[in-house]
Amino acid sequence: MHSLLCEQHPETEVWRKHVNDCLELAIRYKLKDADLDSRLRKGDRDTFEAAINELKCARCLENSFGKGSLRWHPEGSKGRIGEFEIVSGNLGKPVFVEVKTIVPRAEECLEWRVKEKLSRYAERVTFPFMLDVHMKELGKADVFSGKGFKMFLEGELSKIGPMNQPIRLPDYVDDKTGLYLEIQASPTSRGCYIGIFSTEGRLEQKEDYIHHSLKKAFEKPSKASKGSKPFLVILCSATQFPIHEDHMLDVLLGNLGVRFSRSSDGTLGGPIFFRKLDGFTRPKMNRHLSAIGIYRERFTYEEIQSELEVYHNPWAWNPIDPTILQGKGVRQFVKIDDKHMGWMN
After folding, report:
1. pTM for this structure?
2. What is the rounded distance in angstroms from the CA atom of residue 39 to the CA atom of residue 237?
3. Rounded to whole angstroms, what are the CA distances from 293 to 16, 126, 263?
4. Residue 83 and residue 16: Cα distance in Å, rounded?
5. Distance in angstroms (rounded) separating the CA atoms of residues 102 and 49
6. Block mean pLDDT (10 aa), the chain, length 345
7. Which site in 19, 79, 200, 232 is 20 to 30 Å from 337, CA atoms measured?
8. DSSP per residue over 218-249, as a string?
9. Rounded CA gap, 233 and 227, in Å?
């Protein structure tokens, strides 16, 4: 019984070591002060995550450029741990770094918790069905009965005999919270699997969050943000709010457009895709931004591997030389020529 109660999941130990490594960096750079202690001990998940993400990004960059390659409290940063400089000798000018954590609104956080609870209870159902759940109404709280949802599924699925095509189950409505679900069951040879979809058009697009975070980075009074030195913004996002390549390209370079050419004889040519140049980086806007990074993590049972993806601004006043990040495990989207960008080999 003692071993059962005291047993720690391997993931917990790996995560704890990862956080301890970040705190070791904070102590080594003399960042551990009352402000950092308050942010870590506050008990608020968003505040804690933002503080740890800043240290994680710093640790990731230090692993690339070597110990002692970072400098905190540059002029104008007001002592925030999420604002520092890379001062490695081969950089030329120091690179000012601003770390921003993208935090979903309360509605998105609530939705994620509801999805997590729905999935947890649906996966306990032993019937071999695949379930597609459409959340029509999220409700006012996430305190709905997960056990009640599990009992509902077991009762409805037990009524279904052999089937060759999807079957619509009765709608599930939680009277206490207002949670409203439409559910469809499909045959599968595996155990019960659940896919949960949100109501269309209710939530902000991820591009809106990225744009908002970048805008906040430029509201800081830092001299680096005025173009006096290379400026790198690193965005961190929670696992329930992943950011992909398409989101970044739409925000930074603009939305995709398509043109069709017509020859002199009236023949219509094939489509030509292009960016509309209505993104955050443009020839005459935000040129003090040198590059935007996305920090991600990959979990293994031995360690948490840090990954950094950097999108360079082709119109930056103070660009970051992509070669300084080559061979450091950083994936880079760079300017190839005056009309093209692509991933650096």
Report:
1. 0.67
2. 18
3. 25, 43, 42
4. 24
5. 10
6. 51 81 90 81 77 91 90 63 78 85 69 73 73 79 74 84 80 85 78 63 62 75 61 80 79 75 70 72 86 86 84 91 88 87 83
7. 232
8. HTS--GGGGTTS-EEEEEEE-TTS---HHHHH
9. 13
